[in-house]
């Protein structure tokens, strides 16, 4: 699901109003624990979002 966010550039239009490109993933990782989520996903989606 992580890589899908990056691949689906056209989906960005739908995800625009959301905090990141993901409805749940970015919401959980960004405000709560970005470090742990960042380590879990080795520089895939977190880098472009952050």
From TrEMBL:
<feature type="compositionally biased region" description="Acidic residues">
    <location>
        <begin position="1"/>
        <end position="10"/>
    </location>
</feature>
<protein>
    <submittedName>
        <fullName>Uncharacterized protein</fullName>
    </submittedName>
</protein>
<feature type="region of interest" description="Disordered">
    <location>
        <begin position="1"/>
        <end position="50"/>
    </location>
</feature>
């Amino acid at each position: 699901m992580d890589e899908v966010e990056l691949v689906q550039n056209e989906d960005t239009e739908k995800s625009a109003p959301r905090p990141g490109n993901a409805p749940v993933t970015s919401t959980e990782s960004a405000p709560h624990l970005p470090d742990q989520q960042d380590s879990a996903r080795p520089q895939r989606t977190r880098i472009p979002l952050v």
